Every structure is written in structure tokens, then in C-alpha cells.
Known about the structure:
Layout: E1 2-10, H1 15-25, E2 30-37, E3 41-48, H2 51-60, E4 64-76, H3 81-91, E5 96-102, E6 109-116, H4 119-128, E7 133-134, H5 136-140
Amino acid sequence: MAIQISVFIENKEGRIRKAIDTLAKAEINIRALSVADTTKYGILRLIVSDTEKATKALEDDGFIVKESKVIVATVPDKPNGLNSTLALLDDADINLEYIYAFVGNEMDEAIVAMKVEDTEKALEVFEKNNTKILKQEDIEKI
């Protein structure tokens, strides 16, 4: 499991940039990000090199931040590679709430961060099927 930080941001010009600038000033490296938005607000989801330091920097700069656990797994970097991983969840009747991808160091694999309805069951399914799950310390090395 990895720690994701979610930053709640007003949906107006310059707010995402301000959050990213806050992280840059704190010398935080962003490993992955995703933005979901509504008319008035957005959620900036991040996996970073130092979660604790990033959370503190963002909160000190006035942002509302929530930490949560997500599954970070490698998937084959080939056509239908992601689908083969998603099929494992579907076959086990596990709902995928959201997913986003990022780049790793290995050329033959891609990396996805997933929030699922039943984390423990998903981890069991992935372990049974030899899916490589990254821990926070693995991500910090990317």
C-alpha cells in the first residue's frame, strides 16, 4: 500500500499551480498526480516522495489535505496490459473507485494507483495472481 494525499482546491485559476509551487518550495518530488473536478472544487490526488513533509507544507500554506491508502501495482506495459489487471478485480467482484497511472523505472511495466471498495480482498487477489504491489518505500525510489 502507498499513501496518497488529496488536496481540496477551489476550481479557479492558479490554485493547482499554487499547490504544486508549495511542494516545489518544500523540495517534494511528485511521483503521480490526478485531478478530479466539479464546478466549484477539485481534488488534486498526489503520490509524492515524502508524504509527511508534503502534507505539512500544504497545510501550512492553507490547503486542506487528506491522506489515504491506495494500492499501487505494476501492470504489463503492452496492449491490454491494464485490462488484464482490471479483469482480476472484476472477476472477484471488487469495485474500482478510481485509477490513475504513472511512469516507473522499468521499461516493461507501467504503474497504476487504485482505490478499490475492498482493499484487503483486492490485495489477496493480486497476491494470488502474482501482481507486483509497490510499497511506499518502493515509490520513493522511483
